[in-house]
Every structure is written in C-alpha cells, then in structure tokens.
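Allow me, if you will, to draw on your knowledge of protein folds for a short while. I have a record of one protein: its chain in single-letter code and its fold written as discrete structure tokens. I should value your view on which stretches of the chain appear to form regular backbone elements. Thank you for your consideration; the sequence and its tokens are set out here:
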Amino acid sequence: MSLFEIRCKRAQELMVKNGIDFLFVGGGTDLLYLTSYPHGQSERLALFVLPAEGKGCYIGPQFEMPRFEHSKTKVFFDLLPWEEWEDPVDFAAGLVDPEREAVIALNDRHQARFFTTYQEKMPKVRFVSAYPVLGEMRMHKDETELSYLIHLGKALDRVWEEALKLQYSGRRESDVGIELHEIKRKVFADAGQPTLTVSRRGPSRPMSGINTASAHGGGGDRVIERGDAIYWEMGGGSCMGYVGDKTRSVQVGPPTEEYRRMYEVVKETQRTAFEAVRPGATCESIDLVGRKVLARHGVEKYMEHRIGHGLGMDGHEYPYLVRGNRRLLEPGMVFSVEPGLYFPGKWGIRIEDIVYVTEDGAESLYHSTKEFNEVA
C-alpha cells in the first residue's frame, strides 16, 4: 500500500469519527497530499472525491487524463473524465444519494464557483469544513516530511551566510534580489539529494528603509541607502513539494543604537517564544509568551501580526500561533516563530525560524546566525 493510500485510509477514519460522508478535494496541495497527483486550481473542475468507506474517484477533464500516465501517478482510485460540453458537477452529484441528507466536507481552498453549483444540485447535502480531516492530518509531519524540511533548511542557512557578504547600499532592492536569487539557485543546485527547487515566482527582493515598516513590505523598488534597515524573506523554494519560510534582518552601516537595541528585543522575543514550544502547550501561549517580552520593553503595539503559522506543502497552513487558538501542540507539528517590530514611517525588524515540535520540546530547521549584523 502506497503512502497516499495510507493517507486516504487515515482520512476515512477521521471522516467516520466526525460524521462526514464524503470528502471533496479540489486542485491544490490537498489534492497532491492525498493522491500524489499535481493539479492546481482552474475554471475546469478537478475533484478528488473520497467516501467514508470504499474507493475514491477523481473527476477531471477528459483531455487531461493522459497526465496521470505522464506524471507516473499511481492510480488507486477511479477516473471519471468529463467532456468540455458536460457539467462536471453532475458527475460529483451522481455519487451522492439524492434522497439522503449526506455530509460533505470541502477542503479550505475549494472554489466558490463550484460550491454554489454543488448547493444547487445537491440541496439536501450539508457542507462542512474538511479541517477535522485534512487540517489534522497535515498538521502532523512524519519523519520523511521532516527530512525534506530539514534538508531545505540547511540550504537556506548557506544562502544567508552568502547573503551577508553582498554589497547593499547604493543598489536597488530588485538588483540585490536578482543576486540573492542567483545565490539561492547555486546553493540549491549544490545541495545534493533530494532535489531542491527555487520558487517559480522568481527573485524576491529584500525590503529596505521605510519598506520594512510593514510586515509584508511596501512601497516601490527603492535604492538602498546607508543606515537602512533591511529584512529579506528568503524562504522561497521547496524540497519534494515542502516549502521554506525564513526571514533575517540586518542594518546597512553605519549602525544606529536604536536599531541595535530593537534588534536585541526581537531576538530575545524569538528565543523566548521558541523555548516555550513543547507538547501540551497551546498555540496561543507561544504568541502570548513572545508578547510579554515585547510588553516588558514597551513595544508590544508595534507587532500587529501573530507570532507564527504552520508550514508544510503550503507556506501558511495549520496550526496558527495566535491569541485565541487553544489547540494543543503535538510532536510533528511544524510552524514559524517570527516576531517582528514595525515602526510606522521608519523601519522594521523580523527574525523568523521554522521549528518542529519534538517529544519533549522543539527543534529549529534553521541554524544560521541571528546575531546583529552590519552589511555594506
């Protein structure tokens, strides 16, 4: 039995436990996770249907069916191809007894265009979230999944070591971004097996100066100046479909006392929150522990985002480390610990590692320096 068949069996166990009759999984990473078949979202319905008992099936365009052979996907489910002139939702509805008030769970990123048609053609069905199935499963990484993330983490550590050697001042963010992308491409190529893949989105530029005053960057492509704060989200890339997410911050010389002082606050917050990660702790407790450090230094209001988010085949997935989330941490969970400070109209700092929960604590996937660094 393949890994994907085992995952489907586990999904069915959770479906029975939660009173779910069918799991409807559209294109994206959930589909890949359960079937090993890569298909993104599209205006054409691509749907994996898993019943609580028995064999699943895949509903997809007829002309795409050769992809299963080309991608060497092991097909352990039925294939239900539809022609361009047919309504594929009729195929999905045909799997459900129209006289029964069935419960169908939809994965988080299911497209509304299909959901509304499901409602029209299956009026007796109750639709619920697939979180109790897919969320629970994907939150817990096995040893193979962790090995992919660890391998990627080692490469990202080397990327940052090389990034510290670059010239930043006097150059546009985008130009530095191209050079950083080339560093990543070379490091990934030299990393050995399993293969690492650079993000298809292309170069990600570092944020500098006032562009760092927002957690997600902002403003146009600016020329980096002396004394600028810089942060770079360098995590773009993947190993066997599992992605990275890593941020480091530096200051272009000459360094300022204010920046160095705030940098040490963020570093202390990141370390303190990481040290609080252990089985049995709640997701919100990690966020709150970090905020207590910021509050002690009088700067809590300058971090408006949660302290972390889960990571795996998606850059953001369950669990989310945010106030109000009382979900208990368990071994195998993987998430970011990424406090930051963002001073409006000035600059910002963020330090981010991805960590995983062990039997008695946590380990970080990244080990490159988090000490203050001045760059040219």
In short: The two ends are 55 Å apart (CA to CA). The mean pLDDT is 95.
